Fold these 4 entries.
Entry 1:
Amino acid sequence: MQYRRLGNTGLKVSEISLGSWLTYGGYVEEQNATASIDLAYESGINFFDTANVYIRGEAEKVVGKALSKYPRSSYVLATKVFGKMGDGPNDQGLSRKHIMEQCDASLKRLGMDYIDIYYCHRYHPETPLEETLRALDDLVRQGKVLYVGVSEWTAEQITEAVHLADKKLLDRIVVNQPNYSMLQRYIEKEIIPVSEKHGIGQVVFSPLAQGVLTGKYKKGEAVPADSRAANAQANMFLGNILTEQNLDKVEQLRNVAYEENLTLAQLAIAWILRQQNVASALVGASRPEQLQETIKASGVKLSSDSLEKIEEILNT
């Protein structure tokens, strides 16, 4: 396993990280979730990701319990705040009240004293940005949070947050968590350049495009019964990705992977890691064996010939 600095910080995270979105605490049994976390840790993954809103806190409980057997200093844990955690008017968003209360609630569910990376899960236009940044700064000063991040913020929103933090001497954003894969490349135009300018690293989610880039889905065939597409809750996120055009691209990419002596999933992750601004590719695993394949993508350098072929395929 290879490690990279997270933005301009001194923190080093594994190139492959393990997430728990729509899996742990949900349709994945706790035994498989724990086994996946154990395999990840034993394989050198030191970066684990969850969120308070994942199954209303159940994912945090599973992740915290599984990691409790390991020294706290040996791994980096990220969780998030923003999503709806109750039925009250203040049970979601990025107000000071919600951030402070949810940080304490997440720590309790995780069974930990601090969170390494605390993300604003989305941007909240109803809350003044300074209120959000001051609350996060206070959590850092209290030692409950070590680093602050955002997820799916625009380049403009990130820039505004950086400038405001500098002006008010508040803790800076150091990481962004966007959707990024061969089939979802919007961050290349503005997000990455802005982030590089301000020392912000990317930890990308859905690097395998919800499993489409593993090759498990094929044109004219029913989706596998054990796949994410067969799960009603997860399938709602696949509509714009699981298209015939993308499946055609996947078939062509499979040939490039073969030439590189890689699986399709390994090729997809190695392609993402060609971006130096990407600190880590966040993968999911409902079974430990799924991780065994993707972990091998760390450290892989694709040839310039393969990169050119991939670009041609993706642009068709």
Entry 2:
Amino acid sequence: MQRRHLLAAGLAATALPGLLRAQSAYPDRPIRMVVPFPPGALTDNLGRAVAERLRAAFNQAVVIENRPGAGTLVGAAQVAKSPPDGYTLMVATSTTLGIAPFLFQNAPIRITDLTGIAMLGNVTLFLVTRPDFPVKSLQELVALLRKSPGRYNFGSPGNGTVHHLVMEMIKARERVSAVHIPYQGSIPALTDVIAGRLDFMFIDASVAVPQMRAGKVKALAVTGSKRSALAPEVPAVAEVFKGLDTQAWQSVAAPNGLPAEIQARLHGEINKALATPEFRQQLAQMGVDANPMTQAEFNDMIRRDAAAWQAVIKQSGAKVD
């Protein structure tokens, strides 16, 4: 028995240097970055921006893989089931790490199946309407919904997204109704708003602002506690409804169990990029306010946000359509 223990210890000691060398050599092949939305909108553009920074830092390809569906959980489940070796990462949103696992019955992952690598920043969402929609403010929208329950519809980039939940919070708070129509991504939803097939929606600033400036949609409000520098004339939701300043955010996550050394390398390189004025400006143009944190701070925030969103889902009665 003692001989077997000594043999096992010897094998482990022999394997350990090889494992440490493999980690210190990371990455020695291309990295896959899963984006849980279709190409072309904020999360995809953000993923490509981060991928380019990691490619330059590591001198390795970082390949974007779009896996939309189920409120980001299709992509998240694929990442969670991947080997925790640093070669599969994802752009994880507040939907992924705070909302969808509680909203979907039989969700394919738990929040603890992923670990937060780096917080990227807070996201600005605009509430926009079709050009001929007969309201000019959030207050007028609520009054119209109260007058005609269930007559109007609103879209979102998918069930369980922050875009969906913020509207559900307003509906629950004001006791009004509107029909939710989920899309796979922001672009097709906004296309239908512009065409008049959809009445209104919350949408990422990077997609909304160009259409606002072109006069193709009307902006009624912006999420968060303050106005956006991208359109300072648009009031914040919290100006109308005190305390309703729910914040969407974007991050990079990996499968749980990723070795600490690799986590530290990824976190360090991403935060190094976030410290540069060029990258911060690139994010600002997308409607993302860079918000670097330590890894411990970020994972603490995930836990707090998840508990808060779970309470919101329960109070609002939001359901997957």
Entry 3:
Amino acid sequence: MITIGKRRYAGIVSRFVLAFLVAASATAFAAGSYPDRPVRLVVPYPPGGGNDVIARMLAPELAKTVGTQIVIDNRPGAGGTIGSNFVARAEPDGYTLLIINTLPHTAAAGLYKELPYDPVKDFEAIGMIGTVPYMLAVNSSVPAKTVGQFIALARAKPGAITYESAGIGSATHLAGEFFKSATGVNLLHVPYKGGGPGLSDLLSGHVQATFENVAVLTPYVQHGTLRGLVITSSKRSPLFPDLPTMAESGYPGFEVAGHFGLVAPRGTPAPVIAQLSQALDKALADPKLVKLLATQGVEAQPDTSAAFAALIQAESAKWLKVIKDAQIKAQ
């Protein structure tokens, strides 16, 4: 007769029970029991911002395709890192998701010294929602009519041309630093506490330029208060088809855009990720949602979870380099 010590026996039983629960969980997911309750979609910013508006546009249609209610949960603070950390630490069961803009999401690792999560490794990519192009725009008093003329003007007067941003480490700041690095010009960065004050000073001529998304700039450029010089995303904006991209202007590889998508906590079962990815694709096939997103300057671009994961990694490498080279630290 073989005897087993009580402690060893208890350990064997514990491992058996754990293995059983894992297998049972996988079987349940495979059997299609997901979802059986509402799904929380965390927005790591206050209501009214880009992430929030896109999430609220997406939620009703996504609820139909997923088959359960999508509840928006705003968890703002610390440049989006509070909400992101909440999701990174959530149960990986498919019931807590995060909407991200890849630029600030990946840049956080370079801006915050003790970030409690990894923006790439601690999340599973579900899929992309769409892209918001960015634009270099100037106050109408600036004589430059093209990005080439703007660069020539900046080179002629190093440090004399100012550009505003929503603050140290913001997307608009990083876009400007990337532009400086790519073109070799010296612009003077003027940070503000949020996008509103900076835009106000740009409109009044206290600062001269900005690198902002087209959704924000469209009404001012259309009315001639600001002058758009170039689109910084990889392709032209449908809202401004006559504006060239940076690549078309002689700077291949330069791209600044807001790539919005959904992620889940690391370890979320693959069948659930696949189900959510398919549901997202189906939601974005609705012409009404595509048109609604377009009103915010968002070009719907559904893609596979693998493709979105690769994009997140590429964005991380790009923005961490920009931050390191410019020695930027969040305030």
Entry 4:
Amino acid sequence: MSTRYNLRRLALTAVAAVALSSNVAFAEIKAKIGHAMPDTHPQATAMNKFAELAGIYTKGNVKIQAYHSGVLGSDEKQLQAVQSGTQEFYIGTLSPLSTRVKEVQVWDLPFMFQNEKEVYAVLDGASSKKIFEKIEPAGLVGLTWTGMGFRNLSNSKRSVAKLEDVAGLKIRVMANPVALETWKTIGANAVPMAFAEVFPALEIKALDGQENPLVHMYSNKMQEVQKFISVTNHVYTPVAIVASKKFWDTLSPADQAGVQKAATEAGLYQRKLLDEGDIDVVSKFKAAGVTVNTVSPAELARIQDKVKPVVAKFAPIIGEDFVKGFYTEIDKARAAK
């Protein structure tokens, strides 16, 4: 009798343990991803897709909410929140980390790429993986690199067709040393400023212009305060989806794999949307009364020659071997045409 009772009690205990562990395994984990782009931007569409896919690939375990338009703060603030663990995911530039992870600055070097094919090859290559390894001690787990687009110049004063046209223009640039040095070398009055402050500064003419990818400009209504856009493709700005290491380490291996798969697919989707969007927005700018011109290859070569000292100055700071490897990846992609 006693033996039968004990066996029954053990069986009930085992059933209860299974039920409890099952509840834990399928407990909904809530997380948020934030970024600076408005909800009309392809990145917002891609991040909504990321949230949807993460739910599917984790079988409902991880529920991610996407927050657009910088409602969670600036890029720098969000990166700090993800590092500290108060925000789970972020997508955006990693330039705020450039003082701690010097390799991040390689993406600020001007006139490296000729087209998106070369960019994507490098984003999926060894150098970009190495940057993800470098950011892990900062409390970040890199999930995927994706596109944001080639940066181009807009202003309210004149079309920029040659190097001399830049002289004296008060241009907002990213707050990093490579960008500042590049634009000063070209002859602009370079002003570092948080992007959230740019539109009002352009509106009141405190700034003449800014430089950003075309889709980014249109989504942020630059056509309302800028009359000229010059296609220069001077720098390609990628963005990365990163997770808080504190949060990531709480996920099961299966959930990590599901979220990683979702991030990779959402990143590829964002690249596709951006490639399509670049073609579409040029006609929209023109319809809004913006003059769009493309700087000639010969003139771009002049400007590229002018900024060679910038590359020479920052390559040792970023790391000569790392920069050399980065350019080798570009050359390999270029040769594979």
